[in-house]
Amino acid sequence: MLQEINISTEDIQYAEKILLPEGANFDSERLDFIYNFDTIDLQAVPGSGKTTALLAKLLILETKLPLVNNRGVLILSHTNKAVDEIKERIGKHCPKLFSYPNFIGTIQSFVDQFLAIPYINNYLGFDIKRVDSDLFKEQLWREFQIISWKKEYDKPTTFFWGKHIAEAKKESTRTGVSESVICNLKIEKNIKDLYFDFNDEKIKVFRDDSVVLATKTNKKYIGIKECVLNVLNNGFISYEYAYKMGLNCISVYPKMKLILQERFKFVFVDEMQDMDTHQYNLLETIFYDDGNSKSVYQRVGDINQAIYSGEVHTDEVWEFRGTPLTINGSHRLSANIADLVNCFTLNSEGGFQVEGKNENSNLKPHLIVYKADKIKEVIPKFSQIIKGYIDSEDIIISNKSKFKVIGWVKEKEGDKLGIADYSEQFKPQSTSQKIDYDNLYSYLTNLDKGKRTLEPIRKSILNALIKILRIESIKNFENRYFSKKQLLNHLSESYEDEYIYLKRNLFEWCIDIIRGKTGEVYNSLKAYIPNLLNLFEKEINHSKDFIDNVILQPVGEDSIEPLAKDNIVNYNDFDIEVSTVHSVKGQTHTATLYLETSYQNGNDTYETQRLSSQLKHNDFFDTRKYHKQSTKMAYVGFSRPTDLLCVAVCKDRFDSHLSDIDTNKWKVINV
Question: Strand 194-197 vs strand 202-205: parallel, antiparallel, or unpaired?
Fold first, then answer.
């Protein structure tokens, strides 16, 4: 039985009341999308409120549930943060949408729950407890080291040594590092990228699915296959492997596609441009199914913002089906900023054009032109400009105001520029906290700087302790490696005094790290570890290098800044954060300074060289790879601010490439 979703004026007013400021309404562009329940693509400009339009559709769908035959709604996004935003904004209004048969989560969580884990557990017979790429790779390397020189497996290290030694010798000549050290590092990287394909039973590389070993009687094949199976038996699988398993599931059980299509009547994917190829193909296979799907499949995003995970896509993963719906009006951008951003648009299908609808500010973009020896004065000048506009009330600040300095490249060797050249306070760091590192000290220094609590520090220390237990092959009563919770429960139940002692130390270690006493905490942990291992009748053996190897040398507490000060500068009584373009994707700023940096080698490595025509308000037509990458970075970076956009350029490059820039569209300020 077909079910048509009919949306009334009252439905729209209901969604507007929940999602929009009082008196505001959805315009025709957004209404076209909200009313549409066909398989379509939506291409929306930065600051368009596309997610808000999607949420309006979901709020209205909630009032129509349950669907005929109790079919469900599937909502997927790329990150947990995006999923949490959906839950925070409409969760209390949508109790049915957030329960069976519906599902709201990341693409990874969908694949894990509906495809990979059921297939692995029920068909292959493994009991997977944790999906984590770092831990999977660590365990695979550990298993390989056990067999690496065993004759029964034909000494597999010799096979990989032969694959990498020639390149290692070249790098050794160039860098002066021992060829054996380089070769061993290449072997480790190679091993960590291997997997066993259960479909054709070959050993392959994740990176490109190339076959490494295929003969089942080959001793090296047997050894490496055992390594992979041992890691799976221990309950670990990587994110990449989970996707492979998901595809295997569909291959082995073709009816799974139909089951999922029957389950989910409507499928909505937000931030579609952030898809990896394997994610894109998996969802296409299931929910588009060459046009034969029983699901309505809507994909939402901005193809021009396809940057993530350190990469910048030039060959588009997302291919539109027919002409996409568009939302061209940006509530974030002023007309002046939008006119510039529009020149950096690579894909304009469906009449896509960036139109600035923000009338609260219409400052011209600013070029901050600096002499090479004045580069450290660029950010203070940005702060001074902001202060002037605050004083003149051209910028009205609130508790939501954000001021950011961003660039593409963090650090650069030689005379090429990176963000670090503009600010001594800038400390390159990962945009998200890893949970696995090569040495103990890194667990104390690579922390989640976005949180101002003890929680991320405590978790990181416990992760270090359970890694030491794994390295020493210490397992729980179920013959599995300890999780953080299991370790604490074990100590609490069997060694109460030691449990209390560890809890007290954890608190003190966290406080000391916040105070900048990382070196002292490191030494204290080193002293504690033998006591912990003694509880399991073990001593430091295989974990010695992990404990003692210090990549970031601890030279005393004065060398370690308190966490809250990293990458924050303050010149005029307000904070300015310095970060990368990748880290601010999706954010809204009051004012943004985009720093020119150098990417790749050769001529024209700076954005101001590659994009001089676009900075002069001409459309982009270049087909060169790095020029297109630079365009996407600028498109994302330039489209963050509501009020003020500044771009920093060295005077030498300004004189050679931008001296004839239109001062009716730019304000040029010299440092």
Answer: antiparallel
